[in-house]
Design brief:
The protein is built from 4 helices and 2 strands. The chain is mainly α and about 160 residues long. Strands 1-2 form a two-stranded antiparallel sheet.
């Protein structure tokens, strides 16, 4: 077996009769950083049903169960774009207002695409449309479904 040089540090070189392949002196290339922040809601058209379809003063109508402490959105700069019930839902799911709005717009955009091809809009479709945790997307779908926001009447103007 020919002699193989193994670099076990940058300072020393050893000579050995190792029959396995030599150690690589260069480390693995690092993975590119992923950006999980999906909060550019202005880049997505807003096909959401009007906020006035939610009753005033009822902050529990979009209620969802979620583990952990709710996120405080009292100082969120986008809070004024949400109904109070949506603020509670977003906080419960630990989504800031911008991420919530982006996910909401993605869900209703997917709803319109499903209507265009005559397909039923399921929880899985909402999960695939969003770039958030599938369990959070599922809770959004359930909340929107409960208040009737997937009713095709809200989307006829876009078809």
């Amino acid at each position: 077996t020919p002699l193989t040089q193994i670099h076990d540090s940058f300072d020393t070189t050893m000579t050995t009769t190792n029959t396995t392949s030599p150690k690589s002196a260069s480390p693995k290339p690092s993975r590119p950083a992923t950006n999980r922040d999906d909060s550019d809601y202005n880049a997505i058209p807003d096909y959401s049903p009007p906020l006035d379809t939610l009753p005033k003063g009822n902050t529990k109508i979009l209620k969802a169960e979620w583990k952990g402490q709710a996120l405080s959105l009292a100082d969120d700069p986008d809070r004024d774009l949400l109904h109070e019930a949506e603020v509670n839902l977003a906080g419960t799911l630990r989504l800031n207002c911008a991420t919530y709005l982006t996910s909401k717009r993605r869900i209703f955009q997917a709803r319109i695409e499903a209507l265009k091809i005559g397909k039923e809009f399921r929880k899985t479709d909402a999960q695939q449309a969003c770039k958030i945790d599938v369990n959070k997307a599922s809770k959004l779908w359930q909340s929107y479904d409960r208040v009737g926001w997937f009713n095709p009447e809200y989307f006829r103007q876009y078809l």
